Amino acid sequence: MKNTFVLLLMIFMFVSCAEDPRPKPSAFLSMEYPAPEYGLVDNNCPYIFEKNKLAEIAKARGANNCWLNLEYELLRGTIFITYQPVNNNLDSLLRDAQKLPLQHTIKADVIEGDVYVNPSRDTYGMFYEVSGDAASQAQFYLTDSVNHFMTGSVYFRAQPNYDSILPAAAYLKNDIRHLMETVKWKENK
């Protein structure tokens, strides 16, 4: 009996000399997308802008002819763009555009708004970056304050799991910023 105890004790000591298990470090998916190449979009609307050539333009169903969807099949995401003329209703258009990001406060960790001003192109607005498991990761609006009002938002065809869509969301946020910087109202050409 004593020999069995000593034998078990020795086996236990040899087995327990292995390395301590350690948790694996956090990591993100390593997704690489092609470098963006931009081209001008002029589609018989009162505005023009540059879009990433990776995106395909689709007209929004049943909507105004100047409402567009920029479909990113590789990223399984879409930038939805709406346009409305300003007809003494700028206050209500601004109020509606500013409410859109707030609809995501339930799932969002943080919503940050950056003021956008480009007097040389007569464009003014806001860019909203949404962090967390919200349905939309970025939204914006642009206006000239007199005639034009444009909004845009990013949505993915996937469960809004922030860690999983982070690389694609970052890519599309850069495209939205480029789009905003290149919008030009046609009568201001």
Give a written overview of the molecule:
With 189 residues, the chain is of the alpha+beta class. Helix content is 25%, strand content 36%. It has three helices and ten strands. It has a seven-stranded antiparallel beta sheet, with helices on both faces.
Key features of this structure:
189 residues, three-stranded antiparallel β-sheet, 36% strand, seven-stranded antiparallel β-sheet, 10 strands, alpha+beta, elongated
Number of helices: 3
Q: Given the C-alpha coordinates, what overall shape results?
A: elongated
Average predicted confidence as pLDDT: 80
| DSSP E strands, number | 10
Intertermini distance: 97 Å
Rg computed from alpha carbons, rounded to a whole number of angstroms = 25 Å
How helical, in percent, are the residues? 25-40%
Give the topology string: H per helix, E per strand.
Answer: HEEEEEHEEEEHE
